[in-house]
Amino acid sequence: MFRFATRTAIAALSLSALAATAMAAEVNVYSSRHYDSDDALYEKFTEVSGITVNRIEGKADELIARMSAEGDNSPADVFITVDIGRMGRAEEAGVIQPLHSDVITNAVPAHLRHPDDLWFGVSQRARIIFYAKDRVEHPPQTYQALTDAEWKGRICIRSSSNIYNQSLLASIIEADGAEEAQEWAAGIVANMARSPQGGDTDQLRAIVSGECDIAVANHYYFLRGFDKDIEGLSSGIDNIGWVWPNQSGRGAHLNLTAAAMTASSPNPDEAKALLEFLTSEYAQQHFADQNNEYPAVPGIGLGEGPARLGFFIPDTTTPTAAFSANAAKAQAIFNQVGWQ
User: Fold this and answer.
1) What pTM, to 2 d.p., does this model score?
2) 1: Cα separation from own chain's centroid
3) Domains and CATH numbers, the chain
4) Mean of pLDDT values over 210-215
């Protein structure tokens, strides 16, 4: 079961790293995370380290292009993105470098780290199945079951250009092979209630409106419907149920917010201190409490939102590095089966 609080391996901020950065002034973060709650996290880091955090926020691909254009003169020290697929693009662009840290290695499980230490996960997002309680008596229990004829014309899901879907298909390629992955993608296309459109919230809204009976979305988009009044979702959210897929198999697919040191970091000691801080108990609990995410470090208690969804078995056997390694294959399959 996904019981973070049952483990005791809690990462701490590296005292040696802090000692090395005692005279440092700042660390520059390029981040595709757009959450105000991250400001409080960086303020805490400044409080304990004396290092000022300068955050540049933007879309991941734009930030990667910016670092590429800046080259060796880039001021960026740390790159943070909300999906391993985009971190894979940063790897291909050569804008990140390995960071060898015992603190990170000891805190973050191996399947949530790059095999050559190019990046590591700081929080997790589950891509799961949602359904209309009043129209679906026996919802699909696996990703594979979404292709059953029973769901023809009943599924809403985002486009193939969406990185979350690309990473999900990439994980299926890794777990089951390209042939089965293509059959799965073709089956989803056959069962779509409409052409893909909108974001994850729109797929959930479509359940409320009756446009579809099943949707695939990241868990936190659903939880936002409880936290705030989201038009077209919150009013009907009590009729939406959820399924943790593949609980008798590989487990539910989770993607990562990931962090890395940039290739041309002008402040590598400060960058290392911040990156290690992101695995600390304080930072990990912050992700859980403030943004409805699942911690990447075992032993951290669930936030109130994720706790609402209950415990589950995550996929810990499929390396997250495969999400970016198989991204090109995933997109080719989407194109072949006509997933718009």
Assistant:
1) 0.89
2) 19
3) 4-124+255-310 (3.40.190.10), 125-252+325-337 (3.40.190.10)
4) 98
